[in-house]
Amino acid sequence: MSLLFRKFQEVVNILAKSPRFARDPRHVQFEADMNRLFLYTSYSRLGENADEKDAEEIVEMASKASVADQQRQVQENIHDQIKHICGLMDEILHPDSPNSTLQLRDSPKRSGLSFAVGNSASRVPQPVDSQTQFLSRSELSCYVKDHIGYTLDVKPSQIPHEQAGHGLYLDGEASEGAVVAFYPGVIYSPAYYLYIPGYPRVDASNSYLITRYDGVIINALPWGVGGENLEFWDGSYQPNFRPDSSEIAGKGSDRFWKMLSRPLKSARRLNPGEALERRNPLALAHFANHPAKGTEPNVMVCPYDFPLTEKRMRAYIPNVVFGGQESVGMKRFGNFWFKSWGSSDQRIDVPEMKTLVLVATKPICNEEVYLNYRLSNSKRRPSWYTPVNEEEDQRRWS
User: Fold this and answer.
1) What was the pLDDT predicted at 242?
2) In this structure, are residues 369 and 180 in contact, taking their beta carbons and an 8 Å threshold?
3) Other CB atoms closer than 10 Å to residue 156's CB: what's the count?
């Protein structure tokens, strides 16, 4: 399987260097990433009985399918996994409720994959059910590992650098294409950038920010390491989480980083909050470190647009949207974003929340999780950062 992936990536790299793509290298990198995600997640969806013939068929499909079709398939593949994970946690925490479980995923052997993505009706408000099983976060983590084969832990990183701080570890075994972590926190669309704590230098003292290709930013700093209950969370500062001094520059006092974690007072009304399961043991993607020189990453980021019509899953998606679920169209011109007031027929039928997850790019077994940060080369990079692929970094931020 790895040989087939390497062969396909050679084709992707050749395509990226083609003169006809020179005008939009950023989009080229997006297509290359989507190709990889299509391969990994499609192979994972076939299950344990997949063979080399199935892998070859997926590669052939990827070479023929449009980027839009691949995006739809990746979304379906990721949703299939997350629905299974959320259904499992729901079953564990609501063992006595007849309606507590989602339909768990079946993994029959298939020779092909459908490109269809199901849509459903608009969102209906859901009452909060606080009658959950009394389990600690660590106990839930053990149950999750027993059922899916892995869970996550946060402990000192093995990277030989004084600024490495804590890292993310996978406890158990996960195969390539598996969703191993959710990226938690507050979601900011470009329309609400000015409300990100520390704006406009939002990344100066916050290493827990991540950006999607569509410009959406997720701030995981307020989430910390999660909690011990199903609770109402509005993205506010969590007192049980204190970043390492190596991870947050200038953390000289509690006052400094509490201010950094707290939204602007005038913005509180724009961040209504929701009831979330803070015990989710996989909501720790923000602790994944960039690999040291000579080490390859074993996960990659994947955009996941969570359909808000999946009401029973909602509590297990560790994010809130700043500004609520209202949709504000934005257009990008160079480095600037402007509001775009399009017609109502441009709106999607199913309301979605734009999140991120980490997908395994190789089998991971009881080891630290490494994510390629792809830092922009337009700014001074930290001393610990060694590019995994300089060309990819340039295309990503071109």
Assistant:
1) 53
2) yes
3) 12
Query: Considering only CA atoms, which of 195, 233, 208 is closest in space to residue 319?
Result: 233
pTM (whole model) above 0.70: yes
pLDDT digits (tens, 9 = 90+) for 175-228: 999 999 999 999 999 999 999 988 888 877 788 999 999 999 999 999 999 999
Give the residue-averaged pLDDT of 323-336. Answer: 55
Residue 146 counted as domain residue: yes
Domain membership of residue 366 (yes or no) is: yes
Q: Is the dihedral of CA 350, 356, 357, 362 positive or negative?
A: positive
A 10 A CB-CB count for 84 gives 18
Contact between 241 and 262 under an 8 Å Cβ cutoff? The reply is: no
Domain count, the chain: 1
Ranges of beta strands (E only) in the chain are 150-156, 166-174, 179-182, 185-188, 209-211, 217-219, 230-233, 274-277, 299-307, 319-321, 330-333, 336-339, 352-360, 364-368
What are the residues facing 356 on neighbouring strands?
Answer: 303
Q: Is residue 139 part of a domain?
A: yes
Separation of alpha carbons 73 and 368, rounded Å: 29
Q: Which residues span the domain enclosing 192?
A: 66-107+132-374
Whole-number Å distance between alpha carbons of 166 and 377: 25
Is residue 18 one of the residues assigned to a domain? Answer: no
Q: State how far the alpha carbon of 325 is from the alpha carbons of 5, 185, 206, 265, 330, in Å.
A: 38, 15, 25, 20, 15
The alpha-helical segments, DSSP class H, found in 158-287 are 254-261
User: What CATH code is carried by the domain that includes residue 324?
Assistant: 2.170.270.10
